[in-house]
Amino acid sequence: MTPQPSVDVIILTRGNRPRELERAVDSARGQTGVTVSVIVVGNGWQPTGLPAAVRTVHLPDNVGVGGRNFGVPLGQGELLFFLDDDAWLPEPDTLARVAAVFAADPEVGMIQTRLADPATPEAPRYWVPRLRKGDPQRSSTAMYVLEAAVAIRRTVFERVGGWAANFQYAHEGIEMAWRVWDTGHSVRYEGDIVTCHPAILPTRHDEYQRLNGRNRVWLARRNLPWVFAAPYLGVWSAVEWRRTRDERTAWRMWRQGWSEGWHSDPGDRRPISFKAAWQMARHGRPPVV
After folding, report:
1. Residue 79 has what pLDDT?
2. What is the pLDDT of residues 203-219, one digit of tens each?
3. Domains of the chain by residue range
4. Domain 6-200 has CATH 3.60.21.10
């Protein structure tokens, strides 16, 4: 008898949404067709009130998106599934279908499922990780992922070095996708596999524009050959100016973050290969946009 795929579901939380966290945990534990281990990482919070089978990690401080990395060593699953604490798996076979995609194509290294809010008929456009958004239910390759519901092979995760520990939040899904492509694997957006998530905008965070600008520069400094970094930053400067030109505070905060990105340490520089950049271009999005 063929053993079931093993999946570690890692949920990062600050403990300030107990009902949503309970829903996320229950949806993960209720998955069928896979062997599931649920791991909750308390980001500046001591996990409590969870089922005994759930493994937990307590981080004394809120370390941002890098907190997800601390949950990985607690499991042994061949696949990792990172789930936001306010997201949930609506069907019991969601993870089995994700595992089937990996099994069918060894070149697939990471998958983002389609995000959907049952309370809203239309999803935010940025939830579809491609330039030509089109029908959200259409599957495709992807050059970035939304971190709310992402699956990755454990072996690939270890090769890329995990989530950007110093980003806090904003653009860590771009770096992760670029580094997966750099391993020779592809990144997929599976439009027919759904994870539910409330339709909220990242701009709700007070520091979003500053971190958006800083991390955009860090992305280039950490990951791109300079021949790509210059046009990439030029393109995104123009994009952000167009988006925020009528919002003086937002534009000022973005420029502040941009400056910070050049005058602070982005961490280790590991530029992707020209082969990876070519593969990304072949799939419709070279690393300059």
Report:
1. 98
2. 555 688 999 999 999 99
3. 6-200, 204-268
4. no
